[in-house]
Amino acid sequence: MTTAQRLTDRKREAILEAAIAEFRANGFETTSMDKIAARAQVSKRTVYNHFPGKEELFAEILMQLWESSAEQRALIYRHDKPLRPQLLELMQSKMRMLSDSNFLDLARVAIAATIHSPERTQDMVARLGEREEGINTWISAAQADGRLKPGDPAFAAHQLQGLLKTFAFWPQVTLGQPPLAAALQQQVVDSAVDMFLANYAAGGPAR
User: Fold this and answer.
1) pLDDT of residue 68
2) How high is the pLDDT of residue 73?
3) Where is the HTH tetR-type domain (predicted)?
4) What is the pLDDT of residues 88-146, one digit of tens each?
5) pLDDT value at position 116?
6) Residues with Cβ < 8 Å from 58, sequence gap 6 or more?
7) Model's pTM, two decimal places?
8) What total number of domains does the chain contain?
9) Domain contains 59
10) In a domain, 107, yes or no
11) What is the pLDDT of residues 29-64, one digit of tens each?
């Protein structure tokens, strides 16, 4: 990596850190690219060189938080492993992301921005939705392998994730409740996986 590339990377990181601070402190609507540039100590032009707009910058932040909290290897379906431990690993990874205080703070900002101006945040929401595709892919692969009942994988994935979000996302985002304690996190994950397999596993949940 050249010196110029390292400088560019440092500026990009400074922009992301500044944007996180601004969004958390001031919300989506009030935060401006000018404020982000000032906090990052770079020019506004530099900010736009890295990110075409505020929506793209915010979506990038949330996706980075997702990636830092989720183990992507857990999203790969394994035909030679039982379903339950695979799903437990998948949902534990999801739970870690849902328990991240930065993610929860910025999720509140994203939801408020969507309510205030849905037309401006459609692309941001669509890009974030792509991060859910790994679970759909896992379910689709298990269905193709004959180990989950056939059906709409997106519908099944939405149900599965909803079992977690009911306890570990919506109360924290909408009511300000603290993240779940570790023991309760595991209880929610275990019960969600068992409920999912009881309904969707072909030939019974033990397969």
Assistant:
1) 61
2) 46
3) 9-69
4) 999 998 898 888 887 788 778 777 777 777 766 566 566 555 556 778 999 999 999 99
5) 72
6) 19, 23, 28, 106, 109, 110, 113, 124
7) 0.74
8) 2
9) no
10) yes
11) 899 999 999 999 999 999 999 999 988 888 888 777
Are residues 185 and 98 both part of a single domain? Answer: yes
Q: Which of 11, 34, 51 corresponds to the end of one domain?
A: 51
Domain enclosing residue 35, as ranges: 1-51
CATH number for the domain including 17?
Answer: 1.10.10.60
* CATH number of the domain bearing residue 174: 1.10.357.10
Q: Around 33, how many Cα atoms within 13 Å sit in the side-chain half-sphere?
A: 15
Strands (E), the chain: none
Average pLDDT value over all residues in the chain: 85
| Length, in residues, of the chain | 207
The letter for the amino acid at 1 is M
Could you tell me if residue 69 is inside a domain?
no
The residue among 35, 51, 67 that closes a domain is 51
